[in-house]
Amino acid sequence: xxxxxxxxxxxxxxxxxxxxxxxxxxxxxxxxxxxxxxxxxxxxxxxxxxxxxxxxxxxxxxxxxxxxxxxxxxxxxxxxxxxxxxxxxxxxxxxxxxxxxxxxxxxxxxxxxxxxxxxxxxxxxxxxxxxxxxxxxxxxxxxxxxxxxxxxxxxxxxxxxxxxxxx
Length: 167
Prior knowledge:
Layout: H1 2-40, E1 45-46, E2 58-71, H2 74-86, H3 91-114, E3 119-130, E4 140-152, H4 154-164
Parallel strand pairs: 1-3
Antiparallel strand pairs: 2-4, 3-4
C-alpha cells in the first residue's frame, strides 16, 4: 500500500500542486499586467511606423527597450506533450508568449515614461531562443521590444498654428 501511494499518489499530488500553482501565478500575472498597462493607456502611443510625420515637432528622441527572458514551464510542457498526440494549438505556450510580450512592452513604456515621451515610433519585437545546454534542461525565450521614444512639442505646434493664422 505504501508503495502504491509513493508510486502513484505522490506524483499525482505533485502534478495537482503544480497545476494549481501555475493557475494562481497566471492570474496574478494577468492582474499585474492589466494594472501596469492601464497606467500608460492614453498617455503613451505605440506606433509601428518607421517615419515621423512631417509636421511633428520633436523635442527629444531616444531609443527605448524592454526585454524579458521566459523559461519553459514544465507543467505547460507536460500538458503540451499530450496535445502533440492529437494536434492543435498549444495554448499554454501561446499564453506564455503573450505574457512575455506584454511584460516587455510594459518595460518599454516605463523607460519611455522616464524620458517624458508621449509616443514611441518604429516599435519592433524580436525573439531569441535560448536552448538548454543539456538534453533535459529547459530552455527559454528572450523577447525584446524596442522603438524610438519621442517627446513632442504639442503645445508649441498648437501655439504656432494659432499665430500663423492670426487667431
